[in-house]
Records
---
Amino acid sequence: MNHTIRPQGTDFESRYRAGFVLSEHSARHLRRILRLHLAAADLLEVADAAELALTELVGNVVRHVPGRRCRMCFLLRPGAVRVEVADSCRRLPAPAPENMDASDEAETGRGLLLLQAVTDRWGAEPHPDGSGKTVWFECLAKPPTVPDFLSRAASPAPRP
């Protein structure tokens, strides 16, 4: 049964979907798979951010989910990627404290700050049947910009 949640009214297309039992080394392999899909979709500009966010979600499954089982889904559309990680842990991620910053000495607890910093959107949804949750993020490519000299050349000349 697929518990991944697709956003309403979007045109994301599923490109990769698989179930895993994760280990400490799984993130490296999943980053490679994600990068291949991003390259095929001409979305390499979001690869670093998406890989970093994916690493954080995989690490959370390894640390917090009994049995380390999850389902992973990579969804693509022109200019964007959405990654979903569904697991059996019902506890939703807790937001980091308001006063936490990079200078704090804690070695854990910054995952959601990182996710928020490197992605355009993220969220967590409980499964409707209560069997766990899906944590997801989206990274959007920046629209191409037209060099200034081209935009001036494309503008109509002023009338005398």
---
Amino acid sequence: MISPTSSAPPVALKAHEGAWRFVIILISCALLLLVSGSLSLMTGETSFSATQVIKALIQPSDSLASFLVLELRLPRFIIAVLVGATLGMAGTIVQSITRNPLGSPDLMGVSAGASFAIVVCMAWSALTPLLLLLTGTLGGFVAGLTTFLIAWRTKLSPLHLTLSGMCVALFFNAAIVVVLITAKADANGIYFWLTGSLMDRTWQHAGLLVPFSIAGLVMGVTFSRPLNLLMLDDVTCHSLGFPAHLWRLLLGLIAVVLTAATVSVAGPISFVGLIAPHLTRLMLQNKSQAQCLDHRQSLPVSAMLGATLVGVADTIAKLQNVPVGILCVLVGGPLFVYLIKKKAE
């Protein structure tokens, strides 16, 4: 019997080439985040110079620059980075446990379940950031658990898991429409939240999301070898003595909680959990490699790419006064079509 914590990754990158590629990608993403973050702090309805921003960061005061930079712009950008990183990791986990390169947290029904729970509460009462997080996480967890229960009789086979998630997502999306129709409250705020926006997010929101992002990265890297084995077919996993369905359940629940937490803070932001893993495979793989990669490398890269995507998108969205979720869809849709076309070629 082979222990999931001692098995070698299914596809090992060539030592030097893979290591250099991994480091270069992380450094490139970090530089993009630095540039994007600088622009995010400098630009807005009131623009500041780089000197003013640096002074506001180093020597906080009662000035307008300090207030806008430290209380509005900096927490918003940090939340954008955390949301993108968390969705990137969740997307990688979902695509691994379903062995579906088109898989995303949205297909597990998690985003729809979390959105439904929050919409119900928003329609009849106001929520603090903490209650918003608890409500959304609970709703997403219930939706994800429902998906797993439906597919349990097939031992969580990737196909049935994907189909079950789609059914659960359709149900909760329909339920959201029913709530919006029947709710007596003004639905404009709910509609705006459903587009996925980071407007008016504070340090409290960032503080609530940080533990999920850190825990997701730590658990993802810790469980990277079971994730690697899940890329094998179930017959091979069984012959190795590897309980694929139990690991699929555990890792799936981790992805569920990560996704639900981001939805609670930023609303449903589509395509990030789908695009980031695709870009990761495109950048890390060489021509001789199959679909699977060592998750010890792909998870951190997916997190950085997701953070970069949402960080850059929110910087642009803020300048245009549009929700970042809409911009992610407008950019992510054509980009995803391009990636699929390139893969087919």
